[in-house]
Write a sequence for this structure.
């Protein structure tokens, strides 16, 4: 009983400490990290406190390691901590802009993204897909298979997918299609045009809020949260396929976008599905897409370079997670052949918790 009361007291102490206004001290931060194992919900408040209050200590490799182990290797927590360290060292460079400046940056990014979508060339690209599975919440990912997929984008035909190899073995006579559901397992489409178009088109009625600053691949960025209500998220549902059984659910969407503060390009998108139909087999989704400038026929375009797509599936009394790591290689002019080279077969290592 005494140990239970002590644990409750520690959690209450941690939460109350987070509500202060002064920068977080090292001892305070370490105490909160240890409390995360008893109450993971504190993580959201810790991330918020890191962004609003900052830190009053130097971030060392030892504290980074402790954050990874006690924080479950959470990417958002690690990112918030690193940004707090940058803000401590250089407050001016990490200062949030005024609300007016924030709106102006967002509008420039919207205009640039829609222009890029209008000017999107017809192209082909090779997708290297590594698919993993795990029991939900364990983080013990094991490799399920690897795929090489030829993807073509045409302004009139949209995205077409053709599986050309599985586990290093060529797939003969594979026909292109709008998806690759017939292969079985977790699949995803729409990384090229659909994600950006959905976020910024007027019919989505997307709500944006400036969240924080960040540094991504050496570029200073502003991070915005966004929300699309389910009734405005047309054509962006979730489909579950198991053999001949196929079921779909509409869904809303929430996420974040990273905007380069100098070029106003979208560098990263993270999103999750919301309002999924109750008792639908897929209970959660999470997607991240990193964008970079690539060259096609001597012209430069902003296109995806890597994506991480995750699903949580409820099967009877068990929950499973799937993860697809998708690398985009060799963007070429539309009509070019997609060829497999030896390095395409190199596996992505399994992640450990």
């Amino acid at each position: 009983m005494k140990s239970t009361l002590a644990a409750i007291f520690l959690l209450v102490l941690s939460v109350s400490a987070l509500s202060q206004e002064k920068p977080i001290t090292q001892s305070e931060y370490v105490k909160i990290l240890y409390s995360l194992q008893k109450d993971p919900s504190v993580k959201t408040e810790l991330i918020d406190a890191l962004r609003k209050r900052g830190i009053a200590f130097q971030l060392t490799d030892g504290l980074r390691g402790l954050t990874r182990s006690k924080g479950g290797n959470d990417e958002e927590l690690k990112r918030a901590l690193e940004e707090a360290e940058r803000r401590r060292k250089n407050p001016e460079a990490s200062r949030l802009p005024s609300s007016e400046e924030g709106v102006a940056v967002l509008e420039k990014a919207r205009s640039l993204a829609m222009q890029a979508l209008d000017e999107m060339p017809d192209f082909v690209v090779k997708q290297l897909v590594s698919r993993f599975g795990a029991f939900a919440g364990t983080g013990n990912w094991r490799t399920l298979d690897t795929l090489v997929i030829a993807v073509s984008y045409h302004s009139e035909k949209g995205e077409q997918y053709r599986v050309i190899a599985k586990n290093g073995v060529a797939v003969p006579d594979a026909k292109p299609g709008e998806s690759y559901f017939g292969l079985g397992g977790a699949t995803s489409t729409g990384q090229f045009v659909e994600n950006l178009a959905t976020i910024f088109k007027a019919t989505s009625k997307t709500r944006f809020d400036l969240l924080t600053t960040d540094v991504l691949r050496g570029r200073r960025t502003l991070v915005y949260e966004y929300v699309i209500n389910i009734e405005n998220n047309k054509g962006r549902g979730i489909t579950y396929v198991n053999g001949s059984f196929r079921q779909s659910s509409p869904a809303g969407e929430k996420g974040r976008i990273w905007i380069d503060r100098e070029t106003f390009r979208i560098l990263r998108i993270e999103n999750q599905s919301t309002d999924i139909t109750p008792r639908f087999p897929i209970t959660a989704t999470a997607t991240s897409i990193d964008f970079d400038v690539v060259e096609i026929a001597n012209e430069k375009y902003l296109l995806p370079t890597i994506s991480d797509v995750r699903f949580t599936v409820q099967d009877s009394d068990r929950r499973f997670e799937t993860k697809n790591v998708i690398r985009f290689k060799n963007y070429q002019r539309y009509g070019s052949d997609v060829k497999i080279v030896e390095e395409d077969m190199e596996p992505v290592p399994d992640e450990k918790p």
